[in-house]
Design a protein that fits this description.
Structural class of chain A: mainly alpha
Oligomer: heterodimer
Order of helices and strands of chain A: HHHHHHEEHHHHHHHHH
Strand content of chain B: 15-25%
Distance between the termini of chain B: 41 Å
Radius of gyration of chain A: 24 Å
Number of domains of chain B: 3
CATH superfamily of the largest domain in chain B: P-loop containing nucleotide triphosphate hydrolases
Strand content of chain A: under 5%
Largest sheet of chain B: 6 strands, mixed
Shape of chain A: globular
Helix content of chain B: 25-40%
Number of helices of chain B: 19
Structural class of chain B: alpha/beta
Helix content of chain A: over 70%
């Protein structure tokens, strides 16, 4: 496809617009609360230290996987709100299996990942089956399944847990040393390492891109998302697509907890990070379901999270202001994309009309010349 | 009805006050302010005047230099081919869109409409081609919906409806359920709705498109009734014989502007046509028969149960041979859409059998049917045949996701798909600057040519075409007719559904009439007239 600078500018306009609006609104909130607006932004925008860079990359990899899982659904107008429940249940079951050490070393890692994906897919599959057989909205069912997953994990955790020495945290047994994923010393001068799972996250992004834009399956999925009625008339089995898309989305959701499990926590406990599924929705929206866009969105969110940590200490402002920024970004980005999309379509229609008018004029000139 | 309907109703129709009617209207009886200019004016007074209207609008022909004067007590027709700018103009007059230039004068006062409610308050009412009625409500409920403040929602409203119905001979019973009404009656309910809201200028957008000839005559009687009561009727159409029959004045639009205003007495249909397109209209006439004895599509005893008492389709049986065009005539909503969807595999028949060539395809999926060589031009191209937000070359793939040249194993073959899109654009004369523009950017006719080109790709053996030329311009219409005729000569079997009786008669080798989900008669297109067809479509004739 030819490179069209105007199209690129249009693509970038929306997120930039949304960010500017979000910063402006957050500044208003800060000013209204009597907090030092400039100081807050200076703290957030100061260059991160190598240690912070590693943290940003690590948490971005997690957000990225979550964003991908959500985006797969979004591309066909399926709202998988249940990534949160899917990844927690998947991480828990995978942690239990991994701790058994049935297989040695790398094989155990592979098994853990496969189990996580299967559990995530299964949990999403419940919503898919409810949707295609009973017409239950996946939004409702996945929200419910999140609640059930929370309860289910809490219940099972008590059965499978071992007391962690020296704390009142409970968690699954730690996974064997030889099946932990080694980190990568990517950033020079950082005392910590980047998760080895970052490689898997990047691979998942590439797979997502190829699947959606290069394969027939991806075409069917996107066509269903753009117009279900046209998809049906073109011979796409929409129900089947719903099930498959939900299974893939759930499978990827299963990966979300893996960087943490295999790279830092090594067990599933009460302190295992939650809420990543919801952050994924925001990241997918911000990245416009585009694999590169989601990566940028994930990096941005984790940058904001990381940079907000010293706010409390340095400027005496709660780091929750960053949550407000993130929330506003999600709202403004949805509006900005729609505005830009409509503008783009109108522009294109105008361009087509103009070019055709020129064509007609040339034709009639030729006729009159002859 | 009991309280002397005649005198009172005729004398004081809201929004129009006849000379000599000085009795004060009840307060709040109608939204229109009594205006000096409209009370007691002579019948030939100008009700609405458009001067120099211009609208620049992306993707379609803009309006420019539009000048129209509609006098009260007349039916003023606006004719022009599809895409000439009639709809845009009416949207401007009804306040849906604002003109970039020009003035609208109603009853002598210049007006700016910000929304349809402004237009309604000025006494302009519009009857849309697609009815805006809730089937599950009664006539009364539909009429008062959104106008509850006029006469309430009870007996006062019921009386008022009866009055209006009486004085304009609309023959409407307020308490009938809309679902029970036929198309003609629904249209009269729409007219009643605008009268109830006090309209004195009524716009009818292609009102005859949904009617059979007999209903058209009834509609015209109603329109004459309206104009004798002093209302101004703006009648949008592209059917010249109808326009000549009913209009007092005719304004012709071409390429977004008004080119002439004539009276029916001073013009022939041919001259009107020439004004409309600048050249003679194409005709859909077929040449000699190319029907072979090879049965391509065979449908037997097809029944499709519906939610209601009556099945959507009952005992449908027909054959289409290679090289044959079978036309299905019927008033819309008599099972045509369901028949098409059943043949395409989008619905499963309750009983019955469908064969394509030598294969029984009753249980096949839509995908498999398409792969077996069924091309499909759906009724609603924007909803069923296009991805509006996708570029043309992706639209080329739609419906052909499993076939050459679009795919290579599990992958989309972008290069080949793009190349073939280019071929379609050239062969089928799709006017577009390129294959990367979004489908939404093309005009209706060019979208349809792309769809036809796509469905003709991959050597189909059967084409299911539902309203293939609806809403496309005359040039595209002629092109699509040529394509269908050429394919028929090449041995294609065609199932043609159309509301355009001339198209059906001109293209078909056989015409089957569908009524309430049954095939009720066969007509020979060589001898049948649109009037005959109209009779059998409403069940009035004895064509069976």
């Amino acid at each position: 496809m030819q490179f069209d600078p105007r199209r690129v500018a249009l693509t970038l306009a929306a997120p930039v617009l949304a960010l500017v609006a979000a910063v402006a609104i957050a500044s208003l909130v800060l000013a209204a609360a009597g907090d030092p607006v400039i100081e807050v932004w200076r703290t957030i925008l100061q260059p991160p230290k190598p240690r912070n860079v590693v943290n940003i990359i690590n948490s971005a990899s997690v957000l990225y996987l979550s964003g991908l899982a959500v985006a797969i659904g979004f591309r066909m107008n399926l709202f998988n709100i249940g990534v949160d429940g899917q990844y927690r249940l998947a991480a828990f079951v995978a942690a239990v299996v991994a701790a058994q050490g049935w297989l040695p070393g790398v094989l155990n890692i592979v098994l853990t990942i496969v189990v996580a994906m299967l559990v995530g897919a299964m949990w999403a599959g419940v919503a898919a089956i409810l949707k295609v057989t009973r017409g239950v909205s996946e939004v409702i069912s996945t929200i419910m399944l999140n609640a059930i997953a929370t309860a289910l994990v809490a219940y099972l955790l008590r059965k499978a847990s071992v007391q962690v020495a020296g704390s009142n945290n409970i968690g699954t047994a730690p996974i064997p040393e030889d099946s932990r994923m080694p980190g990568i010393a990517l950033i020079p001068g950082a005392p910590n390492e980047v998760y080895g799972f970052v490689v898997v996250a990047i691979a998942a992004g590439i797979a997502y891109s190829v699947l959606l834009s290069r394969t027939t399956f991806g075409f069917n999925l996107r066509a269903t998302g753009r117009s279900e009625s046209a998809a049906v008339a073109s011979g796409i089995d929409v129900k089947r697509m719903v099930v498959i898309a939900m299974l893939i989305s759930g499978g990827v959701a299963g990966l979300v907890g893996m960087p943490l499990l295999l790279g830092s926590a090594y067990s599933y406990g009460l302190t295992f990070q939650s809420g990543l599924g919801f952050a994924g929705i925001a990241v997918a929206l911000l990245g416009r379901n585009n694999p590169v866009g989601i990566a940028i969105g994930a990096l941005l969110f984790s940058y904001l999270n990381e940079q907000s940590n010293p706010l409390q200490i340095l400027v005496g402002v709660s780091d929750d202001i960053v949550k407000i920024v993130q929330g506003i970004v999600v709202l403004t980005v949805v509006i900005a994309y729609e505005v830009v999309r409509r503008y783009g379509v109108a522009q294109e229609q105008r361009k087509v009309a103009r070019e055709l008018a020129n064509q007609r004029r040339r034709d009639s000139e030729e006729v009159s010349a002859a | 009805m009991e309280d002397e309907p005649g005198t009172r109703a005729v004398a004081c129709v809201p929004g129009f006050v006849r000379p000599g009617c000085s009795s004060p209207r009840p307060p709040g009886a109608c939204a229109i302010e009594p205006r000096e200019s409209t009370t007691g004016g002579p019948p030939d007074e100008v009700a609405v005047q458009l001067r120099g209207i211009a609208k620049r609008f992306p993707g379609v022909i803009a309006n420019h230099d539009v000048d129209i004067a509609v006098r009260r007590g007349t039916v003023h027709a606006i004719v022009g081919e599809n895409g000439a700018g009639k709809s845009t103009l009416m949207k401007i007059l009804y306040g849906v869109q604002r003109p970039d230039d020009g003035t609208i004068t109603v009853g002598g006062t210049e007006r700016t409409f910000h929304s349809p409610s402004d237009a309604i308050a000025t006494g302009i009412g519009m009857v849309f081609q697609h009815f805006q009625l809730a089937d599950n409500l009664t006539v009364l409920e539909n009429v008062v919906l959104g106008a509850e403040r006029k006469h309430g929602i009870g007996d006062r409203a019921r009386e008022r409806i009866a009055e209006i119905s009486d004085s304009y001979s609309l023959d409407i019973e307020p308490d009938r359920l809309v679902a029970e009404l036929g198309v003609g009656a629904r249209q009269r309910v729409e007219i009643l709705k605008v009268l109830y809201r006090g309209a004195e200028i009524i716009i009818l957008d292609e009102p005859t498109a949904v009617l059979v000839p007999q209903e058209v005559d009834e509609l015209f009687d109603n329109l004459r009734e309206l104009k004798t009561e002093g209302l101004a009727v703006i009648f949008i159409s592209h059917k010249l014989d109808e326009v000549l029959a009913v209009a007092d004045e005719i304004t012709v639009m071409r390429r977004g502007t008004t080119v002439a205003t004539v009276t029916p007495a001073g013009v022939t249909a041919r001259q009107l046509a020439e004004l409309m397109v600048g050249s003679e209209l194409p005709s859909p006439a077929t040449e000699e028969s190319t029907v072979t004895d090879r049965v391509m599509l065979s449908v037997r005893d097809l029944t499709l149960a519906g939610g209601g008492r009556r099945p959507l389709l009952s005992d449908i049986s027909f054959d289409i041979h290679a090289g044959e065009v079978l036309g299905i005539a019927g008033v819309e909503g008599n099972g045509q859409a369901e028949l098409v969807e059943t043949i395409m595999g989008m619905r499963r028949p309750t009983t019955g059998m469908i064969r394509l060539g030598d294969d029984e395809i009753t249980e096949w999926s839509t995908r498999r049917r398409r792969e077996a060589g069924i091309g499909f031009i759906p009724e609603d191209r924007q909803r069923h045949a296009l991805l509006l937000d996708a570029p043309l070359w992706e639209n080329r793939i739609l419906g052909h996701q499993t076939r050459e040249p679009n795919v290579n194993g599990p992958f989309i073959d972008r290069r080949a798909a793009r190349k073939d899109t280019q071929r379609i654009i050239e062969e089928y004369d799709v006017r577009t600057p390129g294959i990367d523009v979004l489908a939404a950017a093309l005009s209706g006719g060019n979208q349809q040519k792309l769809i036809v080109g796509r469905e003709m790709s991959g050597d189909p053996v059967l084409l299911v075409a539902a309203h293939p030329t609806r809403g496309v311009d005359v040039g595209a219409q002629a092109a699509i007719w040529d394509i269908i005729r050429a394919a028929r000569r090449g041995g294609l079997a065609v199932l043609l559904i159309s509301a355009d009786l001339d198209e059906l008669i001109g293209l078909s080798d056989t015409i089957q009439v569908i009524l309430r989900g049954r095939l009720v008669g066969v007509c020979d297109p060589a001898t049948v007239t649109p009037q005959d067809l109209g009779s059998s479509m409403t069940g009035a004739g004895a064509a069976a």
